[in-house]
Design brief:
mainly alpha; globular
């Protein structure tokens, strides 16, 4: 059985703040909750969005 209780799905139009929302969620998981980065998967649909997310989280 697969547990999806910790899955966050963000779907919205261009310029609506998806990357900001994901960045905030990742920061909370890493800093506040102390989650090991190796246990997090962040997925985007474009290379540009992935690079922006990576740069913001660093």
């Amino acid at each position: 059985m697969t547990d999806f209780s910790h899955v966050t799905f963000v779907s919205a139009g261009a310029g609506s703040g998806k990357t900001w929302r994901l960045t905030e969620e990742l920061e909370h998981l890493l800093v506040e909750d102390g989650v090991d980065p190796a246990r997090i998967i962040g997925t985007t649909f474009t290379v540009k969005a992935a690079a922006e997310l990576r740069d913001r989280v660093r």
